[in-house]
Amino acid sequence: MSTFTLTIDSQTVEAQKGDTVLQAAQRAGIHIPVLCYHPALSPEEACRVCVVEQVRGTWSTLVAACVYPASPDMVIKTDSEMVADARRTIVELILSDHPNECMICNASGRCELQDLAYELGVNGTPFAGQSHEYPIDPDPSPYVHWDMNKCVLCRRCVKACADIQGAYVLAKIDRAFESTISTAFGDTLEAAGCENCGQCITFCPVDAISDKPARGRWRNWHLEPVATTCLRCPSGCRMVINVADNQVAKVAADFGSPANHGALCYRGRFNLDKFVTGNRLAVPLVKEKAHHAEVDYPDALAAAKKILSAEGPMAVLAGGELTNEEGFLLGRLIQEALGGAACDFAGRLPPTGSALDEIDAAGSVLAVGANPMTAAPMLTLAVRRAGRLGRPVIVAGNPEKHPLTRAASTLWNVAPENTADLLGGLLRVFIDEGLTDASAEGLSEAATYASRAGVPLEDLTASAKTLAQSAPFALVVSLAGLETGPGRAITEAATRLRAATGGPFYLAGGAANSTGLGDVGLAPSEGQPDFDALIADLKAGAFKRLLVVGLDLAAHLGGDEETARVLDRMDGVVVLAAKESAATRDADVVLPLTTFVETCGTVTNLEGRVCRIRDALTPFAESRPGWMVLRDLLVALGRTADYQTPSDVFLDLARKVPAYQGLAYDQLEPAGVLLKQG
Questions:
Q1: Are strands 364-369 and 285-288 parallel, antiparallel or unpaired?
Q2: What is the pLDDT, as a whole number, of residue 379?
Q3: Is the pTM of this model over 0.85?
Q4: According to the 3-state scheme, what is the secondary structure of 326-348?
Q5: Does domain 112-214 match CATH 3.30.565.10?
Q6: Residue 56's Cα: distance from chain center in Å?
Q7: Residue 434: which region, alpha, beta or left (left: phi > 0; alpha: psi -120 to 50)?
């Protein structure tokens, strides 16, 4: 990349071709105040707070540093009296139509306008005139508080909604004094298609758009930020949990994360408090004469040991949200102390290991299966981004409800359960048209697949040619809710298509740590029953003992009544869980666990990126982290488990799991580490 020099405040600065004056200054450590500018968004030039003086011989002029291109031998002053006067006047003009209520404003302490006024020495405004009187919080959204009286028209919210989320819900409407931010036709956020992602909240520099659940509960300086990784889906988003009074006050984005680049979804941003609270298990429980009794932890461990060491066939079922450390220790427990009991975890999928950024480099995208916003929202944002860049995007799903409808260049109305036929048809077309040298052995005719999928054969053929001509194409398969049943056929078809065509491959389901738990050995060995088979065997009475770890068993057994029927006829049931459920009500021993915001450890997202999670909250009541409970069970059953912290477990894990060898716990922050593929 070609470089050149310019002079900023009498300092020689090196810049790169394409730099703006602001970028060149920032690279040299020279401060220029901004308001409408944000490094994650394209420049807007809405406020001109960033004005600098460009000296041209005997005269000079003011230019907006955020958009003005740097050029060789340019002379810039960022702190002249002309610049200072202009910036103060700009801020005074903004304040002329801005509520003067900083003492009680929700944004106080993190307001960029307030910080600017302080930095520039602006105390009030000499410009008197009409002020807006928009209704405050007119929208019924449970998440977004709306106060356009405070809006500074920076349009950062509009850009975030369009360029990051790809939802296009917000826009600037009207002109001059009547300009404001609104939805199309003044609809409510919900009616306009808002996805409750909160990107607009992230980018608002004032208090015009804010986090409604957190308003009025804490001041910003009361919040303690804790950077961690979200475990609500396999995206592995890096986020900052702001804690107050040992509660999740509000969640913010982390722009340093390559897994999500500062974006979050509604589950991570707005629903963590509900995930942590409600129906929590407070103390260990042991069943005595058909009723649970509260016991201390050692007594509960002893009761669990008695069940786990007894004779008789045993199954172990786990949830897909356990940390890598918990999965590793559970695997040790199964192999070393439980005689290799039959085991699997919910939502297990084969790893694919493609970085999300590879979608940006792909020539086209094929997105099929269930709703990708449910499976992994960051996949949705990446595919939408590809559509905005003009890449061919072929989407299968309900055209009226699919979140990729706007991004699609080709859209098929295909039921999610028919996805395997669609993928089989595309592969057969690739083979028949000579677009791959893969074998057609075991495949039906393309017309048969097309008929079952409900897509005309000529459309399949045209799309296969498009994908081949724009190779490599990214294959995005969403399996949220489809991991069992049709999910197996979809997974096999997708894997075969990807093997024949190459390119980035993304397989996402409901289990947040499917990749990591598979890596650390929690999956059944070859020839052993998988999760679906274990559930069927459990219903059929094939097991006498059961260990359940971090899993809502009723969701897989068909409800509370069926769960009670199955568990009541067993000799012993041990459940490790954070919340009450049908399984905990019928278990013989219940050991309360923390949630992922109350523990530390690692997880591996759908890219194969190993990330840290941190304990933002202290454990609820007598609940304990899963790694600690599993360690104690290992010790109770006579095995060595000298782990004092999650980092101790990870150290052992990294020695014994090939893909993790060479990784160090402390090197996983802040961005995580992508595992080497192959």
A1: unpaired
A2: 96
A3: yes
A4: HHHHHHHHHHHHCCCCEEEECCC
A5: no
A6: 49
A7: left
Q: For residue 457, give both structure tokens.
A: 């054969």
Is the Cβ–Cβ distance between 319 and 551 less than 8 Å? yes
Superfamily of domain 358-507: Dimethylsulfoxide Reductase, domain 2 (3.40.228.10)
CA distance 328 to 656: 10
SS3 69: strand
Every domain of the chain and the residues it spans: 3-79, 112-214, 285-348+515-674, 358-507
In terms of Cβ atoms closer than 10 Å to its own Cβ (0-12, 13-18, 19+), residue 47 is: buried
Say which residue the tokens 């308001």 belong to.
Answer: 35
Q: Give one word for 245, left, alpha or beta, with left for phi > 0 and alpha for psi -120 to 50.
A: left
CA distances from residue 589 to 115, 288, 298 in whole angstroms, order as listed: 55, 10, 12
Classified as helix, coil or strand, 549 is strand
Q: What is the pLDDT of residue 128?
A: 84
**What six digits make up the tokens of 434?**
């000579």
- Burial code of 147-165, b = ≥16 C-beta within 10 A, e = fewer? bbbbbbbbbbbbbbbbbbb
Q: Does domain 285-348+515-674 have CATH number 3.40.50.740?
A: yes
**Gap between the Cα atoms of 675 and 579, Å rounded:** 33
Q: Taking a C-beta distance cutoff of 8 angstroms, is the pair 447, 455 a contact?
A: no
Q: Which helix (H) or strand (E) holds 16?
A: strand 11-16
Residue 374: closest CA among 228, 231, 232: 232
- Concatenated DSSP letters of 417-468: GGHHHHHHHHHHHHHHTTS-----TT---HHHHHHHHT--HHHHHHHHHHHH
Q: What is the CATH number of domain 3-79?
A: 3.10.20.740
Other C-beta atoms within 10 Å of 361: how many?
12
Q: What is the mean pLDDT of each run of 10 residues along the chain (678 residues)?
A: 92 96 97 97 94 96 97 97 97 94 93 96 90 95 96 97 96 93 94 96 97 92 96 95 95 91 94 87 95 97 98 96 98 96 94 91 96 94 96 91 93 94 98 96 97 96 97 95 84 96 94 95 91 96 97 96 96 97 97 97 96 96 98 98 97 96 92 82
C-alpha 429/C-alpha 410 separation (Å) is: 17
Nearest-angstrom CA–CA distance, 284 and 300: 6
Query: How far apart, in whole angstroms, are the C-alpha atoms of residue 454 and residue 418?
Result: 9
Q: Burial, 142: exposed, middle or buried (Cβ in 10 Å; 0-12, 13-18, 19+)?
A: exposed
Q: Do domains 112-214 and 358-507 have the same CATH topology?
A: no
Which residues are CB-neighbours of 520 under 8 A, at least 6 positions away? 324, 327, 328, 331, 653, 657, 660
Q: Which two tokens stand for residue 230?
A: 């979200």
Q: What is the pLDDT of residue 1?
A: 64
The candidate with the shortest Cα–Cα distance to 421, out of 451, 462, 392, is: 451
What's the token pair of residue 495? 């894997």
Whether residue 399 is preceded by a cis peptide bond, meaning omega within 30 degrees of 0, is no
Question: In angstroms, what CA-CA distances link 277 with 47, 109, 280, 282?
Answer: 42, 28, 6, 11
Sequence-separated (6 or more) residues with CB below 8 Å from residue 425:
446, 448, 449, 450, 453, 455, 457, 460
How far, in Å, CA of 588 to CA of 307, rounded?
9
Question: Could you give the CA distance from residue 494 to residue 424 in angstroms, rounded to a whole number?
Answer: 8
Contact 277, 256 (CB under 8 A): no
Closest CA to 83 of 45, 39, 128, 120: 120
Give dist(CA 50, CA 22) in Å, integer. 8
